[in-house]
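4.2 Preliminary Data

To establish feasibility before requesting continued support, the project team ran the inverse folding procedure on a target of 268 residues. The structure was first converted into the token representation described in Section 3, and no sequence information of any kind was made available to the design step. The complete token record follows.
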């Protein structure tokens, strides 16, 4: 159980967009608030798979009685914020020194081997509130064409001063194409040793880090994104499905547990 006041942001596919708030869409050069996203989704040209949807809702491929969010891109789509992205952006409400949880499920339809140099991010990223600094996300899930695009890595970043960044990628793990993968992140941004990043995949912990993480940007709050983002020159359309993305504050640092976060997402 998660106390309602601790939920800082969530998107719910089984609730009409018109009844949602706290985030906006970003796709094909558009930035609609959640309530302004058409219930039929945001569409563009027809893709090789016959679809036109770029951001919206579809039936869960493994449970047709419920809906999930779909994020899709094609190589010739218009850029959004200078890159190719189909995402939800939550409000900036993440502060240094405080503990938070992010949880969601992601299903990646098989996009086949990718050409070398095809680099992308899927699922989630947490971004600096000071976009003028050009920082990479404090953490994210990334895939690289150099490995055939069939694996992912958890990626983390810290910035202690100026514009310099320290980046680290955890070992590659296989993407379970066509299956729901449950991700839970517990994190605390801090540029000293009190920072924290813990990650669970399907209930098994895959990252346990303590140390600097996040950004030295006083006066700014950071924010979470969910969906798919490709910063390289890619050559085929991509789709990512996301279920029940949520951001939760943990006022004591130990109020919640990874199992509770996973159970909440699965129950939505």
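Position-by-position output of the design step:
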């Amino acid at each position: 159980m998660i106390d309602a006041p601790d939920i800082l942001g969530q998107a719910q596919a089984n609730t009409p967009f018109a009844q949602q708030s706290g985030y906006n869409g970003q796709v094909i050069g558009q930035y609609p608030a959640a309530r302004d996203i058409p219930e039929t989704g945001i569409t563009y040209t027809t893709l090789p798979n016959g679809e036109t949807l770029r951001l919206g809702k579809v039936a869960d491929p493994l449970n047709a009685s419920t809906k999930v969010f779909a994020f899709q891109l094609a190589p010739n789509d218009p850029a959004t914020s200078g890159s190719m992205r189909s995402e939800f952006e939550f409000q900036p409400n993440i502060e240094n020194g405080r503990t938070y949880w992010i949880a969601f499920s992601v299903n990646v339809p098989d996009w086949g081997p990718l050409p070398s140099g095809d680099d992308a991010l899927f699922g989630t990223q947490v971004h600096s509130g000071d976009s003028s600094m050009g920082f990479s996300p404090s953490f994210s899930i990334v895939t690289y064409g150099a490995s055939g695009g069939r694996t992912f890595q958890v990626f983390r970043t810290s910035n202690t001063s100026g514009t310099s960044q320290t980046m680290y990628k955890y070992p590659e793990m296989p993407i379970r194409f066509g299956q729901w993968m449950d991700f839970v992140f517990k994190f605390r941004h801090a540029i000293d040793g009190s920072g924290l990043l813990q990650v669970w995949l399907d209930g098994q912990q895959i990252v346990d880090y303590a140390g600097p993480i996040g950004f030295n940007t006083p006066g700014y709050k950071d924010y979470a994104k969910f969906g798919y983002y490709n910063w390289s020159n890619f050559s085929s359309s991509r789709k990512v499905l996301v279920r029940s993305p949520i951001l939760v504050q943990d006022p004591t640092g130990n109020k919640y547990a990874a199992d509770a976060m996973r159970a909440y997402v699965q129950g939505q």
